[in-house]
Amino acid sequence: MIMKRLLIIIIFVGASFLGRSQDAHLSMYDASPLYLNPAMTGVFEGNWRLHAQYRTQWKSVNYKPYNSALLSLDVPKGKWGFGGQISNFRAGFGNYNAAQGMASVAYTTPIDKGKGHNISFGLQAGLAQKSVEYQLLSYDNQYTTSNGGGFDQTISSGEDFQGQSIIVPVTNAGVMYFFSKQQAFLNPFVGVSAFNLIEPRETFLGNDNDLPMRFFGHIGTRINITETFYVLPKVLFMYQREFQEQTYAVDVGYFLKGAELYLIGGLIYREADAGIITVGAKMDHFVAKIGYDFNVSTLSTVSSGRGGLELSFTYIHIKNKPKTAKICPRL
């Protein structure tokens, strides 16, 4: 039964890789730990973890909606964690596509005698293949006023494309602190991750264009109000050269003892961009969540507030449930 459910998840994400995908926001950013911070590789209680996430957005303003999909698998081995992730994003009329394959490794160690305070270091490396069908694009100098106006793609665009596919290296790193005593009232965590460490040259036109480093900073704490109810406020900061983004969120969870089920939900605000509602459930080895973005940016007058739909599935395999709690963050 378990393998059947896993097969459904894999087929779901695999189908999205054959579809049209785009490099967009992930509103449920910490649902995919390897995407957020390489230091989170293998940092969980269990034998192995499979995660799948899919997002579609801008269907209300574009007949080709932007889609994102990723699939990751990681395993803990003592203080070490090993994993891999594949992702695919596609955007726009020119079918810009970015596919990535990465391997991750992390090392986690306690920094106090009680083994409550922990720090984890992680690295990621792999390749990204990016492509664009520039023949489908239109340019301002191709616009003609005859016959009511329109684009004539037989007119030269003046752009000197030297290919429509490139391969670039991917190198990322991260560090995270977390307090893991599960019986504590507070379980704080803070992490920093950096992407595109070597700033690879990325261009379809043959000119100099280095992909700038991108930084994530994430912080929060799980507050165990009672044995069955928790609140988790958290903040995400993103910075990449001229661009900055701030995301504020709060998750809540309530455990239904009779059903052995956690009901989970959350509110997220991405500054000047979107408000997001998430709902989901955690039962046994499975976590499933769904989120929806309500656009609040200047585009909202066109989109009527409609943004994007996001789905997240996580399966953690536990062969033999440990008698004592393993050191891991309660995110």
CATH topology: Porin
Strand order of the largest sheet: 1-2-3-4-5-8-9-10-11-12-13-14-15-16
Query: Which CATH class is shown?
Result: Mainly Beta
Share of residues in helices: under 10%
SSE topology string = HHEEEEEEEEEEEEEEEHE
Number of strands: 16
- Taken together, the total number of domains comes to 1
Q: What can be said about the biggest beta sheet?
A: 14 strands, antiparallel, barrel
CATH superfamily: monomeric porin ompg
Q: Tell me the overall shape.
A: globular
DSSP helix count? 3
Q: Supply Rg.
A: 22 Å
Spatial separation of the terminal alpha carbons: 28 Å
Corresponding CATH architecture: Beta Barrel
- Beta-strand level of the residues, as a percent range? over 45%
> Which structural category do the helix and sheet elements fall into?
mainly beta
Low-confidence segments, ≥5 residues, pLDDT <50?
A: 1-23
Would you tell me the overall average pLDDT?
85
What does this structure look like?
The radius of gyration is 22 Å and the shape is globular. The protein is mainly beta and 331 residues long. The model is unreliable at 1-23 (pLDDT under 50). It has one domain: Porin (Beta Barrel). The strands form 2 sheets. The protein has a 14-stranded antiparallel barrel. A two-stranded antiparallel ribbon has the order 6-7. The longest helix has 17 residues, at 2-18. It is built from 3 helices and 16 strands. It has helices at residues 2-18, 33-36, 300-303; strands spanning 48-57, 66-77, 80-91, 96-110, 117-131, 143-144, 150-151, 165-179, 186-195, 214-224, 229-240, 243-256, 261-270, 274-283, 286-295, 306-317.
